[in-house]
Amino acid sequence: MGRLRRSRVHKGIRDIQRKYRTRGYMRDIDQIHDDIQPENAAKFEKPELDPDLPGMGQFYCIPCAKHHVNRESLEEHQKGKIHKKRVKVLKEVPYSQEEADAAAGLQKADSKVKKAKADAAMDVETNTQSA
């Protein structure tokens, strides 16, 4: 790798880096969870014809958020490792905003009720230990 080869890789050009980083961007897991819900899944079962998409947009894998050229390609994809991994990840329940707030240590206004229940549980534990 000579001097000229190193200068031709465009490492320092920021917009080229962003282009390649976002080129293969797929939908996030929480967006796909919304797509899987029964009220949203109906729009993927009979989509409109779109000439810009592979297979006119007719063969869509909802868990992977990918369009396929034909039915055989979709079925082959569904037998594959990447699809099976994505399905396994989607079986987990996504985090809610309440869980994120609790992990960050943020409390709500109704935390006094929970504190009272925790104090009652502590009283029960101390009573059982002293007896």
Question: Could you give a short description of this structure?
Answer:
The chain has 131 residues and is mainly α. It has eight helices and two strands, in the order ααααββαααα. The termini are far apart.
Structure description:
With 131 residues, the chain is mainly alpha-helical. The chain has eight helices and two strands, in the order ααααββαααα. The chain has helices spanning 3-7, 14-23, 29-36, 38-45, 71-78, 81-90, 97-104, 111-130, and strands at residues 59-61, 66-68. It has a two-stranded antiparallel ribbon with strand order 1-2.
Keywords:
131 residues, mainly alpha, two-stranded antiparallel ribbon, 8 helices, 2 strands, flat
Terminal Cα separation, in Å?
Answer: 79 Å
State the helix count.
8
Strand content: under 5%
Compressed to H and E, one letter per element, the order equals: HHHHEEHHHH
**Biggest beta-sheet profile:** 2 strands, antiparallel
Radius of gyration: 25 Å
What form results from the Cα inertia axes? flat
Average pLDDT, rounded to a whole number, is 78
Class based on secondary structure composition and strand pairing: mainly alpha
By DSSP, the count of extended strands is: 2
Question: What topology, given as strand order, has the largest sheet?
Answer: 1-2
Low-confidence stretches: none
- Give helix % range: 55-70%
